[in-house]
Specification:
globular; Rossmann fold; alpha/beta; 5 strands; 142 residues; single chain
């Protein structure tokens, strides 16, 4: 079985690792779609801190990841079809946007599964960024 998941994977952390390790328990091949800066601009206020090429390199180094594919359009369905995904793993903020609905409909029609998971409670890239800013401000006030 091929498991496909997507994300920005900026400031790689234990929450990302938990997601990817979970994906590895669901099938034989884990394919990770990684959003380009152009795609991230469509749904987040800021582009990633880590450049796309480095984010790809970090994900490729993980033993729980088999294939990393950058995507440059907000179209998950074409890649799901391309990699012949049997399972699509999404986060709790997936939402009901049209491009998301198409993926869910496709998987339902094909008799395949979409798993929606909760994010790891210990950390997030947004929280890491906030912590860095706070620490920087404390350090500069000394």
């Amino acid at each position: 079985m091929v498991v496909y998941t997507v994300g920005t994977f900026d400031l790689l952390h234990v929450g990302h690792l938990a997601l990817l390790e979970y994906c590895a328990t669901l099938g034989e091949t884990v394919v990770v779609g990684i959003a380009s800066d152009e795609v991230v601009k469509l749904y987040k206020p800021n582009i990633p801190i880590i450049p796309l090429e480095q984010r790809i390199e970090m994900l490729e180094a993980l033993s729980c990841v088999d294939i990393v594919l950058p995507y440059h359009e907000l179209d998950y369905l074409s890649v799901c079809e391309q990699v012949r995904a049997d399972i699509f793993v999404i986060g709790q903020d997936w939402g009901k946007k049209p491009h998301n609905h198409n993926v869910e409909k496709y998987f339902d029609e094909q008799g395949k599964k979409v798993y929606q998971i909760q994010y790891h409670p210990r950390t997030s890239s947004t929280q890491i960024k906030k912590n860095i800013i706070t620490q920087f401000q404390k350090d500069t006030q000394k």
